[in-house]
Amino acid sequence: MKKYTLLTFLAITFTIVACGNKKAESSTASEAKTATVAQNNVDGEKIYKMQCVACHGMDGKLGVNGSKDLTASELTLEERITMIKEGKPPMMAYKNILEEDEIKAVAEYTFKLK
Fold first, then answer.
1. Cβ distance 59 to 113 under 8 Å?
2. DSSP state at residue 67
């Protein structure tokens, strides 16, 4: 009986320790990713050229498929970020395609098109 009690105790202890380590590893991995993103300088122009040029054009004035002239836009940075994230027909939403820092970098880049 003592043998089974000891084995049960060891199994429970091992499970608690193992779960605790996974949580710690997960937090450490998350912190490392955040630090990496902060260190990386996201190139909004490059992302714009890959994702936006087909409709908005290199200079932001193309207007294909009903896209807006970005050089005439009076949207704030936050409004541009929201527009890129959520989209507005015919523009698709990029919230599931681009990371937060990439969306912000593209929104910031669009101010340079004026």
1. yes
2. -
Nearest to 48 by CA among 3, 98, 100: 98
* 18 and 71 housed in the same domain: no
pLDDT digits (tens, 9 = 90+) for 58-89: 999 999 999 999 999 999 999 999 999 999 99
Per-residue CA distances from 86 to 2, 22, 62, 74, 103 (Å): 61, 34, 21, 18, 11
DSSP one-letter string for 11-24: HHHHHHHHHHHHHH
Residues 65 and 107 grouped into a single domain: yes
> Structure tokens of 63?
């207007």
